[in-house]
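Quick question: what would this complex look like in 3D?
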Amino acid sequence: MTMRRVSETLCIDKENIFCRGCDAPIGAAGVAWKAGVAVRVTPLDQLRGMGAGISNKAVLREFSCPHCGCLLDTEVALPEDPFLDDIVVP
Amino acid sequence: MTSVDPITFSIIRHRLFRVVEEAVITLKHVSGSAITNEGHDLMVSLYRADGSLLMGGVGFLHHLTSAAEACQSIVRRFGEDIEEGDIFLLNDPFTAALHTSDVYLVSPIHHAGRLVAWSACFVHVFDIGAMNPGGFAPDAQDIFSEGFSSPGIKIVSRGKLRQDVWETILNMVRGPEMVALDLRSMIACNNVARERMLALIDKYGFATVDSVCAALIDRSEAQLRARLLELPDGQWQSRQYLTAKNKDYKVVLTMIKKGDTLTFDFTGSSPQSEHGVNCTKWAALGGLFAPLFPLLCYDIVWNDGVIRPITMIAPEGTIVNCTRPAPVSVATVGAIQSVNNAACATIGKMLSASERFADEATAVWHANHFAIFMFGRNQRGGLSIGILTETFAGAGGARTFADGVDVGGEIPNPISRMANVETIEATFPVRYLFRRRLEDSGGAGKFRGGLGCEMAIVPHDAPDGGIHYVLSGKGAAFPMSDGLGGGMPGGTNDYIWVHADLDSNDLFPDTLSSFAGEKEPISWGVFPLMGRDGLYVRWNGGGGVGDPFMRDPDKVATDVLDGVVSRGAARDVFGVVLDEGRPDRAATDELRKSLRIGRLAGRAAE
Amino acid sequence: MSRPFYVATDVGGTCTDTIVFAPGRPVILGKALSTPPDFANGVLDSIGSAAASMRCSLEELLRQTSLFVHGSTVVDNTILTRSGAKVGLITTRGFEDTIRITRGAYGRWGGLTEEALKHPVKTERPPPLVAPDCIRGVAERTDYKGAILQELDEEATGEALRALIGDKKVDAIAVAFLWSFYNADNERKVRKILQRIAPEVYCSLSSDIAPVPGEYERTSTTIINAYAGRVAKTYIASLEKLLAEAGYDGPLMVMQGYGGLLPAAEAAERSIGMLECGPAAGVIGSRALGKVLGDKDVIATDMGGTTFKVSVIQDGEIEYAREPLVDRFHYTQPKIEVVSIGAGGGSIISLEPGTNAPRVGPRSAGARPGPVCYGLGGEEPTLTDVFMLIGYMDPKVFLGGAMTLDHAAAYASFEAKIARPMGLSVEEAAVGVYRVAAAQIGDLIHQITVERGLDPRDFVLHSFGGSCGMLAAMFGAELNVKRIVVPYTASVNCAFGLVSADIVHEYSTTKVLPLPVSPDTVNAVYEPMIEKALAQLAKESFSGDKVQLEWSVDLRYARQVHELTTPVKASTPLDAAGMRRLVSDFEALYERKYGEGSAYREAGIEMTQFRLTARGLMQRPKLEALEPGGVDPAAARTGTRRIFVSAANGMAEGTIYDFEKLRPGNVVAGPAVIHTPITTIVIQARQVGRLDGYRNVIIDRVQAA
């Protein structure tokens, strides 16, 4: 089954979505995938490169492949906000 | 419709571009204002008789679609009362404009007595009579404090200037002579567009020119639809946070691509604010086209054809579709900018989902205009009002094949630039302490985002001891230059009032840390810059692309040498171990391996 | 021994052209291929070719030459091929990034085409000429009025220089401090220190090279000059040696980008001065020709193999570029404004997918592989192939018969790639492409004139370069210019410009003076410049009536950005009436260029820059005019053939003429083609071409009966 790129870090076939770093499947194709991966949450004011006025509420979410630890996606969020979902139709 | 041979098509198309070009030149020439000539804060476009966009030029791209709405609204409102030689002024944001300062002048073009086209242009006028000078009024609580505002008024009637309208507008603004120049430049611009358009029609006949116009639009539509068909179906989301006076808002976007259509759905965005960061629905539409044109339509003529496959959903009463009389003066650097960034992010994700178009994808550029206006008595005793043009300097988002361009500008305005330090020091009673690229401001990634800068100014030879400035606090609390595909967001803006320590003798500190004094982060309002105090500003970098642990360690080593990335970031963020400046490959592999494991520690999903 | 000859040679990217002036006879032309990177060799080839047509040897010619005037693309070439010196930059601490930041996106989009501007994701800044690790900031500061706020930290400077020279091994040092054009003290101190530490290292100060406001452009300029470093010096030295060995030991004058000459010794010290001197010479040539013919308003067009260049001469005045670029680098030097687009004889014709609308360029086949019909390997049809397919070029008569053009190959390539996809015959398609090219060029020229507030109908069009003569009648008619001149020296116009130029030294002082200003204040600004100029010219043996000083002042309205260089027409030093005249001239010029109602006078007027153009007037060789003969060109007629005739909207019969057999006074009625040994001139229907006494072809509309 041919794999198709769906982002810098992910690809899909008819059924699954895979980490491009290690080819491991991390979820089903055609649906939100972030629920099935590792998420690390870091308050923005702990990140390098941010200024003095940075919000003390917002966080950086890092979504990584649970098998190889490759970083798949990032999001800036207020903790109460849901994940951003990117879904490519298989 | 006459069918036109490819030769004539080619010649007429080329000439239409030149009509717009010559009108832009006229606009810049007659106005002579810095914001128009240096900041290129302008737009000139041609529209068909029904007000649909025919040919959009470069300048600030948000305006192409709202000026189309302006034409269409004039058509609806004035109907029979549109005559040859008329020029209409429109700046009401709830009708079509982005905010009151961005004034549209819209002219019908008649040939042999029949309405054949429209030309429209805008400049950000010198002042519009709002609560604060320069047009950004952060304390306005409704549109009624944002200056003169018209849903459409005839300023030139059959070639003759309407003195009553002219004098009424100028009566309400500060610096009326400068505003008069802005208006005159737009009148001249439209006159040139009309003359050249008529010359074209005279030469080739209305039927042929109109056929070419229709063909250009159909062709653009066909090209964009074909491109959309080559991109995968799906949905992509982005979210931008913005702050106004200590309250947080968000713009949420779900972009859906299905077949040959693209929908931008802003459902989930915050309700409108009581502060002027809101934008109206026309502004939101303009805001999403600003990245769409250069990212998806880089080789397609920008006209109504590009607009046809696109739909926007923006629920009423939200920050991206506010209802009257909500304040909107800060829209262009508020909600509209958030819409720019959100659309840039989702379009970038969609392009990145395609093998063929991945190299067109980009992380978010220069997410935030900080738009600081300075005013005060200058060294020669006169009054200076102006924008700190560093707001136009920007930073490029990373691409999938290269880093973002440092201080590389922005997507909504392809030809922006900032002034020389010497130009500002000659016009305002200030002295720069430094202006340089800012380390670690580019979003980390396999390819890093372009750097933003930092700068600081202090008063110098000011008759009143200094000046004042207006701040709308953009981009400090939340990073807005989103990364793509694992890339980090670019750094944020910062505005710091340095209360100088008068015991220090150092008048030439060349960093913020060496500038002695209390450093107070500020964000919203009018502030003084007096005595030996300083204003420090840093602006955002572009977003990165890809996992920072995939960045070539040699590149990271060069970044450190070049002051782009700090030694600490090289290690913590990029996972690179440097030994006397050169990467230790084995140690780097080890470190990256362990850092990757560290990512897996936070396992629980929501 | 008498030395009656003047020789001028211009080294361009492809060709090196020569003109020889000999009293009492028409000018002699010579041409040879340029020989990069050692351009000097090509110079002798070119002079040799002129000598050959004079039936004498190179040495014989040179031994009888009293003056050699020269322009060369050698410095442009250094920048373009990135073969300059390793540069170190010393700048004000805190502003080390000026040259990296390039005023934001300005450096990213500068020099890009319109198409590229709409595609930002694919754009970059050009790699800088100074390596990032060769920039050092030192503590020093001057302010907006030239006051020194912070003295130069000499110790830190010494350290920085030692690090750059010793560790980084730079060959040249550029120094650019804020506001140095108002007070150069700190920059000069750096040079003193350098002279102590490493006197052999080339040094360039921004206050010397470009003493004008705007630190980004000024720094960039200084770096470019340091980068080009000793290129000019080395080149000029080698040229002088070669000429001496070939029998010439007279003076050598070198063209600068502002259209004036400098003696070799001066030119050698300022490589940056030679940038774009070729096109500058072209404009000077056009102005000189205009003067001879009595035309003060000229649009000069030059079409070569790759680019089409346009410049405007208004009332005999040449225009200076406001934001000059070399390659993609900004710089600020007095430079003649020449606009170019990628449309030349070698421009490749392609079809736009979807519409099949034809496009001319911007890619070019250059000289190699060249047009298909040259038979040098070119496979893509070019504009030159189109000229041949529409009957303008004769395959048997190219370059005086020296080269036969391959009509069949061009026909086949064009048919397959262009005509058939368009569903047209080769003839129809070629005609279409030609019309597109003419229209696009016409539109560009129109835009350029509009940008200056001018109307093409008030101008005479000069057509230079190899290919222009085949298009000029067409786009000139479209623009409705007064008339079109295809000069005899069209193919060597830059060389012609060299002999029409004077020794020119440009001086300027930046000073912001809001009106009202007393004439004495202005005169006081000029005094030191005049003293310097006169001393310099005296050194070069110019004095008395051989010296001409021209004043011009940049003025602007206080609240607006546009500055206009306004020539001072009143006598100098100025008096009150002269000042008033200057101001009213400025206002008239401003309104004409920027439009009615564009001036905000109430904000006041400021003078911002005071310029002195100091000329050492050169003995100009007299252009010999031949006696006009009769009107009838029959003796030159070689036959007829089918050519594209615009008025017929297709191919029709046109008469063909041999230029060498035409006599001054002959009038050729269009449609017609005139073949010269180097170029081709096309006259459309309802036009006539008259050969004047200088053998220029003057094309006019036929007067309605």
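Answer marked as accepted. The two ends of chain A are 12 Å apart (CA to CA).
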